[in-house]
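User: Hello! I'm new to structural biology and keep hearing that structure can be predicted from sequence alone. Could you demonstrate with Streptavidin? Please show me the input and the output so I can see what each looks like.

Assistant: Of course. The first part below is the input, the amino acid sequence of Streptavidin. The second part is the output, the predicted structure written as tokens.
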Amino acid sequence: MTITGDWYNEYGSHMRITADPTGCIRGTYVSGAGHAVGSYPLVGRYETAAFPDHGTPLGRTVAWRNGKTDACSVTSRNGQYYADGGERICVTWLLTASATEANTWEATAVGQDVFTREPPSREQAERRLRQAGVTSHPHTLSLDEVTPV
């Protein structure tokens, strides 16, 4: 099995990744939550020599800026790829938004997601979004709303 391919979380977000033999991950991420419009590039790394009967550690990052929106934030996901009886990627994520130094303490949210090869139904994703408090997908602004620093 390989982590290359299409992955979906419980909110309907779609990740398409390519993993090369040297441990590099590249791909795109389309959010099923929040107001992130369009696809965003992602980059990361994975362990190429994981222990037998263990998960494969991996990490990847999405900066929430593309040609349509800019959320002035980044989400990093770290976790494990498992292929024992059904492929899944279980991750813990950190969403960090731009903040003043005085507000750094409240600029990062944390949570968990599970990605599988099968997308959830629209009803499942909508139900999960209603139940969620915080998601790893930010509120984004159109580039017209962003004031350059």
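User: So the tokens describe the shape?

Assistant: Right, they're a compact way of writing down the 3D structure. Reading them back into a model, for example: The chain has a mean pLDDT of 87.
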